[in-house]
Specification:
With about 130 residues, the chain is of the alpha/beta class. It has helices spanning about 15-25, 60-65, 90-100, 120-130; strands at about 5, 30-35, 45-50, 55, 55-60, 75-85, 105, 110. Helix content is about 35%, strand content about 25%. The protein has a single domain, classed as Flavodoxin domain (Rossmann fold), CATH 3.40.50. The longest helix is centred in the N-terminal third of the chain and has 13 residues, at about 15-25. It binds flavin mononucleotide. Flavin mononucleotide binds near residues 9, 11, 16, 52 and 54.
């Protein structure tokens, strides 16, 4: 099974990156920033994709990344997000990606920005469970 973990993480704390790395550990994959690889060009069975809201919207590069996903390359997407309160990044990504006729799992991972440490183990288990 080919599994990709991609994330967009903008603050110095790297909250979404840390959750991405824990998910990747569980899934037996590597977490890669979309800023390092702005296009997904390999065929994947599962794409774990995560980001966070900044002033109510996701980073423009994450929006672009999701818009450019190729349905021919991806079987399924699993979303994750970190934030202060909002889950809108997951909702917006789900809508955009589903509209492209790519399957998006109902289940997603959420971690509050102030409880990243407390969620790392759960994120790892989530990565393992969702990639089974
Ligand atoms: C400039 C800025 C704006 C933010 N706006 C929101 C927001 O509108 N809603 C929210 O729930 N969290 C908001 N947050 C919190 C971030 O989404 C949260 O810290 C997230 O974990 C950041 O992820 P990152 O460290 O991977 O960049 C904001 C944070 C910053 C720095």
């Amino acid at each position: 099974m080919n599994i990709a973990v991609r994330y967009c993480s903008k603050t110095k704390a790297g909250n979404t990156r840390r959750i991405a790395e824990a998910i990747a550990k569980g899934a037996g994959a590597k977490a890669i920033s979309i800023e390092d690889e702005p296009i997904l060009s390999e065929k994947v069975d599962i794409l774990f994709l995560g980001g966070a809201p900044y002033a109510n919207i996701m980073a423009p590069e994450l929006k672009k990344y999701a818009e450019e996903l190729d349905p021919k390359l991806i079987s399924k997407v699993v979303l994750f997000t970190t934030s202060n309160w909002s889950r809108r990044t997951v909702n917006a990504l789900r809508k955009m990606i589903s509209n492209k006729k790519i399957m998006v799992c109902e289940d997603y991972f959420y971690a509050h920005m102030l409880n990243i440490d407390g969620k790392l183990e759960e994120a790892e288990i989530f990565g393992q469970k969702m990639s089974r």
